[in-house]
Amino acid sequence: MALTVFAKVRWLLGALWPVLLLLVALGCQSPQATSTISSVQPTATATAPSAGTSAATPTPGEQTAYPGSKLEFDKYRGPLGTTIAVTGSGFPGNQEVALAWQTFDGSWLFEEENLMLAGPRYKARFLDLPKVRSDASGAFRTTFTVPEDFGGWHDIVARVDGKYATKNAFNITATFSVSPRSGPVGTPLTIRVTGQGRFLPELYHVSWDNSYTGYIMGVSTKGSSTSQLRISGGSGPHVLKIWRGFLSVPFLNSHQGPFGPIPEPNTFTINVTEGVYQAPSIWADPKPEEVLPPAPAAKSSGGARLSLSPEKGIVGSRFTVQGDGFPPGQPVQLTWATRTGRQVTPRGIFEGQEEAVRDLPPATADASGRFSAEVTVPQDFGGSHRINAVSGDKKAEGYYFIYASVVEFTERVRAGEKISIRVKGQGWTIQDKAYAVVYDNALVGFVCGFSASGYVDLLLPATGGPGPHTIDMYPTVYGGTDPTPDIYLLPDLNNRDHPGGVQPVFRLTVTITE
User: Fold this and answer.
1) pLDDT of res. 10
2) Which residue of 119, 122, 249, 253 is most buried, as measured by CB atoms within 10 A?
3) Does the pTM of the predicted model rise above 0.90?
4) Strand partners, 102
């Protein structure tokens, strides 16, 4: 079958990207801090500016008002929390010098609302550092602590009376920590990362006993993340390793690549002890009701109002719809909005998808124009659903949010038999329509419930020896237009940074019997 134009473009970008990265690396063998104030483009091969040499170059259109000014640091790279001693010289005597740290705010960008992921985007801004005053000779000395921020180069800019003087740069390096280092099967295992960079070489992948587990990014969390998986496998030592990424896979010999080795320590030995972690066989992480987004703004006409209680829940739960301001004694038609259409067509993933409306049991307003109705959440996609109430020229709407839930799970099974996992309330958008499935910390594949209105029916073979085994289901991005990094359909271990989504990670424990 002929490739679509989108597929051809994505294939071409993916094929050319390694060449482009190599050209960039070859052209950046002696980088200094960037010459622009508004944006830093660090490279992993960059070295810190040498002591006694200012990396400051005036921003185009903003020449320095103090050509002899200079900033020097006692160190030019280090992790978050590093204390930097700053020495200034060549400034006007007895003047206040304003210092500022260049930072970035990260977010995920979609081409259109709830459609294809276009990748991460970053916006630069400056944080004020404590002001200092030069002495009679125009010199000063001060210290400051590196704030929480993305890894890589950050400008430190000096101004006097609002006029640009000079700048230098500091390179934040990444750190990794893993805890605990031992525990029975099912014990939550936390990976903390600080100083993760904004660019492709610092997409990190995690493996467990040389099997791929998932990836870590910190786009919306300023390069810091707290990711979780679970201790799994037989008793004894197991190895968790963090790799530098390249596209969608770990770069195993990255120390020989253009970006250099990954910061150490990045290899951790975890000792699995006897027994099983005492937790429910099914639990959500985090609790979805704690992280749901605010509902869209509701509309009304003719003075009618609508309220829902509660405003969120799972398929099969019940909620109350209450209305006010409707025609007294008249029937009120209630409707539920959902999505319909095909998942994949020759012209794109979402071609043919549109909103559909279902009727709910009608209600009747009392003599004061109020009504109350009990509604059972129907089998449907996760996410926000609009409920309309209409009677004559009176209209009002409200929104109910469905979050995913595991409705069936085989907790005990013999080796080779099927583990049944059924999920309801999986979303329809590109960021929450799929879950990546990880068995004993090894990626198996993904599930998608789009063709069944958010319902997933998974049969997974039970493998491994007798005893407890972990199954983790991570929200994943179904697809997008940005080929770098290609994170699509991979487990997103830092769920709080998951692009646009709020669905939970599901943690399941199955016991294989003799």
Assistant:
1) 41
2) 119
3) no
4) 126
Contacts of 268 (CB under 8 A, 6+ apart): 178, 181, 239, 240, 241
Helices and strands, number each (H, E), in the chain: 1, 36
Cα-based distances in Å from 185 to 240, 421, 471 = 15, 20, 11
Q: Which residue has the higher pLDDT, 399 or 52?
A: 399
Structure tokens at 58: 């005036």
Give residue-wise pLDDT tens across range 222-272: 999 999 999 999 999 999 999 988 777 888 898 888 877 888 899 999 999
Q: Are 120 and 108 in contact (CB under 8 A)?
A: yes
Neighbours of 47 (CB within 10 A): 13
Q: Specify the pairing of strand 418-424 against strand 405-409.
A: antiparallel
In contact, 87 and 166? CB cutoff 8 Å: no
Q: What is the DSSP letter of 256?
A: G
Whole-angstrom Cα Rg for the chain: 28
What is the C-alpha to C-alpha distance for residues 356 and 349, in angstroms, rounded to an integer?
A: 18
* DSSP assignment of 200-229: GGG-EEEEETTEEEEEE--GGGTT-EEEEE
155: tokens are 């400008």
State the burial class of residue 289 (Cβ atoms within 10 Å of its Cβ: 0-12, 13-18, 19+): middle
Which tokens sit at 178?
Answer: 């893993």
